[in-house]
Amino acid sequence: MSIAARLKAARESLGKSQKEMANTLSASFRAWQDYEAGNNVPGGRVFEALARLGFNTNWLLIGEGPMRLDGEGHQGAATGPEGGDQLDTELIGEIIEEVERGLQKNNLQLPPEKLRKLVFVIYDGVKGGMIKESELKNNVILLTKMAG
User: Fold this and answer.
1) What is the Rg, in whole angstroms, of the alpha carbon atoms belonging to the chain?
2) Cβ 105 vs Cβ 141: under 8 Å
3) What is the pTM for the complete model shown?
4) What is the distance of C-alpha 138 from the center of its chain?
5) What is the per-residue pLDDT across 86-105, written as a single tens digit (0 to 9) for each?
6) Quick count: other Cβ atoms within 10 Å of Cβ 131?
7) Domain boundary assignment for the chain
8) Running DSSP on this structure, what letter comes out for residue 72?
């Protein structure tokens, strides 16, 4: 299942129209349509808003784990890419925003699968201590350039 299909499934699980979902996430209706059509990948702010609604960002990005983490009869606690630690949704949002900046700075676009891998490589690097959070911006610019 693609990111676009998972975003649609998330919206439908809430019983919202595309317009209602866009309003809920403070996104434009056209942007949400593009996300669900697979024409564009949401940025960090949208993923952060979805996480605040109880959606598992790991599921949204890579299709692993349960869809929801909100304790309303949905599965388990948030787990990281390796199934161990709880995902730091704030950090993921920050990484996605920095990756977007890095891609824009280098005039690059990545397909969703490559973007997903890049986000989690950086996430694992920060959580594993290989990338200092204080140096995130510089490292992300370099990594996006290499990924492109």
Assistant:
1) 15
2) yes
3) 0.52
4) 20
5) 678 888 888 888 888 888 88
6) 20
7) 3-147
8) S
